[in-house]
Amino acid sequence: MPAVAEVMSTNTPRPAPRGSDLPTCPVCADSMVAAEASAFVADNVISYLWSCDTCGYGFVTKHAVKRFSCN
Ligand SMILES: [Zn+2]
Fold it and tell me: Bridge partners of 37?
């Protein structure tokens, strides 16, 4: 019977609930805070325009959203 009690102290960082789906700047890796603009490019695809406050790089992300059934 092995008396090995190896406790793995995994220091898992807590994922930020709000920062998880926020993009980061591909240039300086700074985290984006809020999208500058958003627009629907399709029925269920929305695109966000981001601009980095640190380096000024702008990029667009696209997200699939569920179609709202409003009746
Ligand atoms: Zn940047």
Answer: 49
Report CA(38)–ligand 1 centroid distance (Å). Answer: 19
CA 60 to ligand 1 centroid distance, Å? 13
**pLDDT one-digit tens code per residue, 16-58:** 444 457 899 999 999 998 899 999 999 899 999 999 999 999 9
Contact 39, 46 (CB under 8 A): yes
Name the residue ranges covered by the structural domains of the chain: 22-65
* 37/64 Cα distance (integer angstroms): 16
Provide the β-strand partners of residue 63. 46
